[in-house]
Amino acid sequence: MPTKTTPGQDFSRGIWRENPVLIQMLGLCPALAVSNTVMNSLAMAAATFFVLFCSSLLVSLFKNFIPGEVRISTYILIIATFVTVADMVLEAVVPEIHAELGAFIALIVVNCMILGRQEAFASKNTVGRSLLDAVGVGIGFTIAMLIMGSVREILGYGSFLGYPLFGSGYEPWIIFILPPGGFLTIGFVLLVMNWWEKRKADRARAGTLPEGAVGRAA
Amino acid sequence: MSGNGEGRPLPQAQGAPEQKETSSLKLLMTLSTAGALAGLLIVFVHQATQPAIQAYKALKLREAVSEVLASPARWDTLYVHDGDLVLAPPAGVDVATLEMVFLGYTEEDSPVGYAITGGEPGFQDIIELIFGYDAEAGVVLGMKVLGHKETPGLGDKIVKDSAFVQEFRGPEAPLAGVKAGRQTGAANEVDMITGATISSRTIIAIINNQLERLGPMLEAYLEEVN
Amino acid sequence: MGNMAWIFISAMVVNNFTLAYFLGLCPFMGVSGKVYTALRMGAANVFVLTVASVCAWILNTFILPYAPYLRLISFILVIASAVQITEMTIKKVSPALFRALGIYLPLITTNCAILFMAISQTNRSYTFFEGLFFAWGAGAGLTLALVLMASIREDLEFVKVPGIARGNALVFIIAGILSLAFMGFAGLLSS
User: Fold this and answer.
1) Looking at beta carbons, which residues of chain A come within 8 Å of B35?
2) Minimum mean pLDDT among A52-56, A205-209, C112-116: which range?
3) Measured between CB atoms, does C15 come within 8 Å of chain B?
4) Residue B114: beta bridge partners?
5) What pLDDT does B6 receive?
6) What is the structure's pLDDT at C124?
7) What is the pLDDT of residues C141-175, one digit of tens each?
8) Nearest CA to C83 among C60, C58, C50?
9) Rounded distance, CA B72 to CA B182, Å?
């Protein structure tokens, strides 16, 4: 059933309100695994964006040709094709980054976020709306990756995009570039987000905010 | 799922009337068409990207071999087959399954030494490296770590500590690792990194194990060549 | 045999799939409220991992050398089919087991751990048995992480947790501490 939302809403909800990583908790595997530097985070976000965009494009173009019984298999086939393409292109163009991302590029195919968008939206809406949705979610994913990557690189390497920030005396907080750091970072990011939402809800209840501006209730 | 039987451009199964449930033929056709198109796209991109990918791999190999053999003028790729080193594997044998060893030559065509790869579990996961070996003198010429997952700041000193890497220019095989302050001056000693003993020990073990296994073959091939 | 032991223990604790590689997080967060369900989920994972390892080995040995670029597509389609067939077989053979596993089986298809295992097995050129031990080690590790998290969460029910930390924030912080603890296993198998 086509949605009753406006194009603007289709675009904007994926960016923050229904952010795929931080709100919907999808696509966590790449978000945690390769977010130890900002460059890796951006590369993974770009690859995922590419796959999401192309998959949504094809699925909404051919939605009337794909019988219901095989739709999941077909979506997976389409997504896997674009992931293979992205993998090969990355290896040819930026081999060092490809080596750092490693097997996690292939894992984009099981990123529930992409399959979810096809099933929930692209298979039921026009090409234009599906692309808007894909771009919105893609931007949301990129933002989440950027947040994770920045925290981990700044604390764990003392640099940003490879540029040292604190001078040679800085003792890097190595735990943040190791696996525990991935978990702790997203845990604390969620903590901060929850605190922010609670603050907004408390303020709204106290009557400080106007009616329409309340976020999710605590 | 919304009805999708109306006005389909795809042909219906052999004269069957419009059905609520799509026929197996249509399902098969959809998947096959999608599969065929997917395959085409992948093959196309594969052809387009292979040159760049192979060029990069060759470059990395060239750098690694040059580094551990101190920039030889050229080198031969030798294959381990049936307990011998051969320049060209026999017909019918898949080259990709054979272990490779590189033999570097100076400009005057005299052998500099072998470049041999190896990998074994280190502290966290497998450490891969390439090392140079002069079979005539029995001396290790150099070592370069190709891949590892050791702890940043500790185990990764096997890459970052240039003094450690330099330890591998010239010691006699088989190598013996010694902790700092315990050197006795023997020709086969290598100082291990304080705080990364296990990673250091693994590197030494990889080299020793490879040489133990390949040593006779290396010497035999040199005799053939000379 | 020593090699197999290393592969198994490395996959189970030293490089635990969930706590070191962030795989299998969907079930890790969703299912791990009770030890009972965590064990069942872990067992289902071990089964699918085994099937996937064998299928990947067959594909790698007989079919993919002719078309290496089709690896990802063939892996994911085979895994999805294997899970489907497993589900149908279990339903027919042992309805009780099917009821016990419930919805966990279909969820495993999108579990990145299965695909990662197949790809790693390929990249490291494991033999048939090395691949099996790798799959079992991975499954044991996933189960271990699930059960640990479940037992911690069961105990947490009796504790007063600050409002802002409730839910996934707390799960991730606990996971971070578990991951930190598991880092202690590094060097377990070295000489």
Assistant:
1) 77
2) A205-209
3) yes
4) B103, B133
5) 41
6) 87
7) 999 999 999 999 888 888 888 888 888 899 899 99
8) C50
9) 35
Q: Which of B26, B225, B218 is nearest to B135 (CA)?
A: B218
B64: helix, strand or coil: helix
Which pLDDT score is estimated for B7?
A: 41
Gap from A144 CA to chain B (nearest CA, Å): 25
The residues in A 7-66 lying below 8 A from C, measured between CB atoms, are 25, 28-29, 32-33
C186 to chain B: which residues are within 8 Å by CB?
Answer: 123-124, 151
For the cut 80, the answer to whether the pLDDT of residue A107 exceeds it is: yes
Contact A76, C76 (CB under 8 A): yes
Count other C-beta atoms under 10 Å from residue A56's C-beta: 29
Query: C158 is written with which tokens?
Result: 């009796």
Neighbour tally for C150: CB within 10 Å: 22
Query: Residue B47: its chain C contacts at CB < 8 A?
Result: none
Residue-wise pLDDT tens digits, A71-81: 888 888 999 99
Q: Which helix (H) or strand (E) holds C151?
A: helix C128-156
Helix axes C71-93, C112-123, angle to 10 degrees: 130
Spatial separation of the C-alpha atoms in residues C41 and C145, rounded to whole Å? 11
Q: DSSP states of C45-92 as a string?
A: HHHHHHHHHHHHHHIIIIIGGG-GGGHHHHHHHHHHHHHHHHHHHHHH
Residue from A70, A71, A171, A178 to probe the interface with B (highest B Cβ count within 10 Å) = A70
Place of tokens 């764990």: A156
Q: Please count the other Cβ atoms lying within 10 Å of the Cβ belonging to residue B20.
A: 7
How far CA A24 is from CA of A9, A15, B38, C28, C152, in Å, comes to: 17, 12, 30, 15, 24
Q: Does residue C107 carry a pLDDT above 80?
A: no
Stretch A106-124: mean pLDDT: 87
Residues with Cβ within 8 Å of residue A51, at least 6 apart in sequence = A79, A82, A83, A86, A108, A109, A114
Question: Across the strands, what pairs with A163?
Answer: A160
Query: Other CB atoms closer than 10 Å to residue A28's CB: what's the count?
Result: 28
CA distance linking residue A43 with residue A21, whole number of Å: 16
With vertex at residue C113, the alpha carbon angle to CA C109 and CA C115, rounded to the nearest 5 degrees, is 65
Asked if C191's CB is within 8 angstroms of B201's CB, the reply is yes
- Per the DSSP assignment, residues forming a β-bridge with B128 are B119, B147
CA distance A140 to chain B (A): 28
Please state, in angstroms and rounded to a whole number, the distance separating the CA atoms of residues A186 and B87: 54
Considering CB atoms only, which of A110, A184, A195 is closest to C115?
A: A110
How far apart CA B184 and CA B169 sit, in angstroms, is: 18
C1-29: average pLDDT: 87
A69 touches chain B (CB under 8 A): yes
Quickly count helices (H) and strands (E) in chain B: 4, 8
Alpha carbons A144 and B158: distance in angstroms, whole number: 34
CB pairs under 8 A between B and C: 32
Interface test with C, best of A98, A110, A114, A175 (most C CBs within 10 A): A110
Three-class SS state of B90: coil
**Those residues with Cβ within 8 angstroms of residue A121's Cβ, 6 or more apart along the chain or in another chain:** A3, A10, A56, A129, A130, A133
In chain C, which residues have their Cβ closer than 8 Å to the Cβ of B124?
14-15, 186-187
pLDDT-based confidence at residue A210 (cuts at 50, 70, 90):
low
